[in-house]
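Dear colleague,

As promised, here are the two records you asked about, laid out in our usual form so they can be pasted straight into your sheet.

NAME FIELD: protein one
SEQUENCE, THEN STRUCTURE:
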Amino acid sequence: MESAYLQKTLGTCLTQGLAEVARMRPVDPIEYLALWIYKYKKNVTMEQQRQEEMVQLEHERELALMEQEVMERLKAEELLFQQQQLAFQLEMEMQEKERQRIEELQRAQEQFEKELRMSMENMAKGEDASHGEDGANSAKTLAEISDRYGAPNLSRVEELDEPMLSDVSMLRKVFCEKQIIFLFYFGKA
């Protein structure tokens, strides 16, 4: 049992040390063997430290690689998030522009309808006024009726019997013309 212990702990060291003493044949072989064993122990300790350092460096390298991978993933996620934010912001801007365009079209439509109502009211008032003025203005000349400079001074104005459009069909015609102009300017999107 003791020989197994000595073989296990000192076997390689003593074998190599005695071989070195036999090869070198020093004057004091005991002192030489003792110094050689100290040197052997120092070399073994240094080798163990070097091995431990190598293991530690390998471990640190693996940690650095893992950290680098995590950083790359974080950068990729951040870039993806920024792209999503930009896309969302652009979408919101597009929606806001679309909303503003729709509001503008609605205001234009309301203005158009208001103008149409006013023109229909003016036409209705004009017809009422023209019916009431027919009797009063029949004796007046065109120059008296018109406020334009250089209007001809005719004694009377004759109206020819022309096929007149009904009021409703005139309003439809005016409405269609204004709607065509509206679509031309604002178009359908």
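NAME FIELD: protein two
SEQUENCE, THEN STRUCTURE:
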Amino acid sequence: MATANPTVFLLMVNGQVESAQFPEFDDLYCKYCFVYGQDWAPTSGLEEGISQITSKSADVQHSLVWNFPIDITFKSTNPFGWPQIVISVYGPDVFGNDVVRGYGAVHVPFIPGRHKRTIPMFVPESTSKLQKLTSWFMGRRPEYTDPKLIAQGEGREVTRVRSQGFVTLLLNVVTKDMKKLGYDTSTLDMQTSSVIDMSEGILK
């Protein structure tokens, strides 16, 4: 009996939000979520998660280590809207209020295999010195109502932001039936360890 041709392909992603570098801050936790196109649907795993609070390590790098697991499988009929993972980092200010310490996003690697990604993080800035002073006293820093917005281009050009910190991900990527549907990523020669330039959306 002949096997029917597949109508969808699968993308399996597992790994971890490994660590972060925020020299000015301590006792931070992170959240992650996935953003994807209309033709994509998760079939198993978790679309979002929140980590434990971690403190700086005692070594010279003073890394914040989470090793927070990621595990999800998607199905789709075409690569448009390839999933992105959005990372948000939070921690206490001087008054003990939880405030955002960084946002960042990166596409899930297109090539099967083990990948390391270091994401530059950023935070929104107040538009004036008065607003900045007021938000500092009130403990309500500028932040996005929905972190998924940073994975989209609309409206980003009117937001004032400041670079702050880095987050490192380790991801294992497996695809199934992509070649049967006419997509071949195995011949691409790309470096699997790279820093993502969020302003231009390219690999360096």
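A couple of things worth noting about protein two: Residues 49 and 169 are 14 Å apart (CA to CA). The chain is about 5% helix and 45% strand.

Best,
R.
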